[in-house]
Amino acid sequence: MHENFFHTLKVYYEDTDAGGVVFYANYLKFIERGRTEYLRDLGFDQGSLAKEKNIVFVVKSLSADYLSPAYLDDMIEVQTIIKSNKNASLVFTQKILSLEKNTVLFNAEVKVVSVLKNNLKPCAVPQEIMEKLNGRK
Questions:
Q1: For residues 73 and 79, what is the distance between their CA atoms, to the nearest angstrom?
Q2: Is 45 an annotated catalytic residue?
Q3: Cα Rg for the chain, rounded, in angstroms?
Q4: Is 76 helix (H, G, I), strand (E, B) or coil?
Q5: 125-128, long-range: CB within 8 Å, 24+ apart, which pairs?
């Protein structure tokens, strides 16, 4: 099992509905940011991977549980961990927590696949990413 990565966010007005509750689809944006920042913390920028290696990550599958709402101005934390990694895919387990209430608001498991940007065909996750992931336990 790999170590947890933590990314803190503040809920803005644009993230909420008219009642000040976070709109359900925005949880997916928050966990996307968590995965992006996890890779950045490992030393990999997705823009550079696309430009220099012609590789992008796409979501293949997702399961999510909405447990409790987040509200305008809440501070939330996205916890990201890589559950498994294979040749062309990574499976992330992610949680969103309310920092004020110290409660889990959202759980998700996300499978992403490494694909070639120009034709979207699966390809191996770059070796340098796999080495960093395998060294981070």
A1: 19
A2: no
A3: 16
A4: strand
A5: 125/85, 125/87, 125/88, 125/89, 125/90, 126/44, 126/49, 126/53, 126/55, 128/44
| Calpha distance 137→124 (Å, rounded) | 21
Tokens of 61: 């599958």
Note the pLDDT of residue 136. Answer: 60
Q: Which secondary-structure segment (H or E) carries 36? A: helix 26-42
Catalytic residue among 15, 17, 41, 73: 17
How many CB atoms are closer than 10 A to CB 25? 8
> What gap in Å lies between CA 102 and CA 104, rounded to an integer?
7
Place of tokens 């447990």: 67
DSSP SS3 for 6:
strand
**Inter-residue contact 37 to 7 (CB < 8 Å):** yes
How far apart CA 98 and CA 104 sit, in angstroms, is: 6
For the chain (137 residues), the mean pLDDT of every run of 10, in chain order, is 85 96 98 96 93 96 98 98 94 97 97 97 94 75
